[in-house]
Amino acid sequence: GKVFDSLFVRHWDTWNDGRRNTLFVAPLPTAKAGAVKGASALSATIDGDAPSKPFGGNDDFAWSPDGASVVASIRVAGKQEPWSTNFDLYRFDAAGKQAPVNLT
C-alpha cells in the first residue's frame, strides 16, 4: 500500500511521486570546450512545476530580452491546487543569486 496525505495523487495520466519539473540554467561552453559543467536550479525554491504538468512545455517560460532573467508560469502546490487554475508569473535571476519574484 501507499499513503497519500494530500491531493493530486493522480493528475491526468500520471501518479504524483513527489518529483517536480524544475527550470535549470547553465553557461554553455564555447566550441570544443567540453560538456556543460554545473547548472543552477532556478525554480527549486517554489513548490510547483515549471513547466507545468501535465501539458506544460517551452511556452511556460521565457527569457528576458537582456538574458538576465527568466519568467515562468507556475501553479503553486497546496490545498487549493487540485481545484485551482491559477498560475502566477515568477521572475528568476538567471545567475541564481536573487530570490524569485512573484509578478502577479
Beta-strand content estimate? 15-25%
Series of secondary-structure elements, N-terminal to C-terminal: EEEEEEEE
Number of domains: 1
Count of strand segments: 8
Strand sequence of the main sheet, in spatial order? 5-6-7-8
What are the SSEs and their pairings?
Blueprint: E1 10-11, E2 14-15, E3 24-25, E4 40-41, E5 61-63, E6 69-74, E7 88-93, E8 101-102
Antiparallel strand pairs: 1-2, 3-4, 5-6, 6-7, 7-8
Give a summary of the structure in a few sentences:
This protein has 104 residues and is mainly beta.
Structure description:
It is a single chain. This protein is mostly beta strands and 104 residues long. It has strands at residues 10-11, 14-15, 24-25, 40-41, 61-63, 69-74, 88-93, 101-102. The chain has one domain (1-104). The chain is built from no helices and eight strands. The protein has a four-stranded antiparallel beta sheet with strand order 5-6-7-8, with no helix packed on it. It has a two-stranded antiparallel ribbon with strand order 1-2. β7 (88-93) and β8 form a beta hairpin. The termini are far apart.
Features:
about 100 residues, about 25% strand, single chain
